[in-house]
Design goal:
Elements: H1 2-26, E1 31-33, H2 72-86, H3 90-103, H4 133-149, H5 156-170, H6 204-212, H7 218-225, E2 232-234, H8 239-242, H9 257-267, E3 274-277, H10 289-295, H11 302-306, H12 314-322, H13 324-339, E4 363-364, E5 369-370
Antiparallel strand pairs: 1-3, 2-3, 4-5
Helix pairs in contact: 2-4, 2-5, 3-4, 3-5, 4-5, 7-13, 10-12, 12-13
Length: about 375
Amino acid sequence: MQNIAHLKFQTSLYTILKAFFHFYLLSPPFFINSEVMALPLLSIFVFSSLALFSLTESKLNVDYYNKSCPQFEKIIQQIVVDKQLAAPTTAAGALRLFFHDCMVGGCDASLLISSNSFATAERDTDINLSLPGDAFDLIARAKTALELQCPGVVSCADILAVATRDLITMVGGPFYNIRLGRKDSFESYAKDVEGHIARPNMTVDTIINMFASKNLNVQEMVALVGAHTIGFSHCSEFRKRIFNFSNTSEIDPSMNPTFGQALRKLCGNNSKDMAAFNDVMTPGKFDNMYYINLQKGLGLLASDQAMLSDPRTMPFVELYAKDQDAFFKAFAHAIEKVSVYHVKTGKKGEVRRRCDVVNHLQVNSNKKIAS
């Protein structure tokens, strides 16, 4: 019955959004003036070692809140629908927020903690400064609604995981199960972030090795990077591809020339607020167009486009470009795997009353960060 309910939810959400995105998808704009934050290169795909069958994961289950908060998923769904319809970039933002959280110490909502007078938290490191406000707002709204219904029961980490899944489904992506029962971390350390998020100038080899160190193989990496089918990036993330690329070429030769010239016009005069969609054809729809774009030289980010020429990643790019079902299946598998990475259960975490503040403030004098 639960699977049937999920299927009905997925179908109904798609129906709601179909008209909303119709013109947007058929006449896709290449660029946006981004006051909302951009989705940087691969930043949402770096994680530390996974172990699917750990003892911790065995404590998670999809029915965790059936008795303690039976309205949990219904409340999340309503908040998700309202927010996505009001701010269509929310889905990409929440997906990025989810991965940024999971990659540093696991899926424990540490990224949601705000900095305080003692020190700086994860969310205020340089690479996290562009995390979109709409994504944080979504989680805050959901937490408030759930605290009114079931005080002190539902963790922020579970809210983020389920809201992200529902948003992916809402914009056309695959449904996948989320095991529940995560606890929220007690701390958030800014110094822990560096080295766990990929930067735009990383080579494919570096990224493959990074994913391998987290027990994510090449196929899983390529599938997860497909999340760039939604979202967008600031000019600073790809400027080196379109200005003074080399002594012989102003534009990266792997980029479609017409696309490159349009990007040069967009990003001229060192504009800091402009951004371009990662998927220039269907930017608001979760589909396999991202991979098709790579085959046409329409990849925005250098490391994305490079996957088409690397013999380790190219077969999966080509597979997902011609077979969306294969992409969806691989993505669902990989993101489920990520969603249980280093989760905290029992006394190793807490259920925060507010997602941006731990229940009891402590100061770690070694790391000079409040937690």
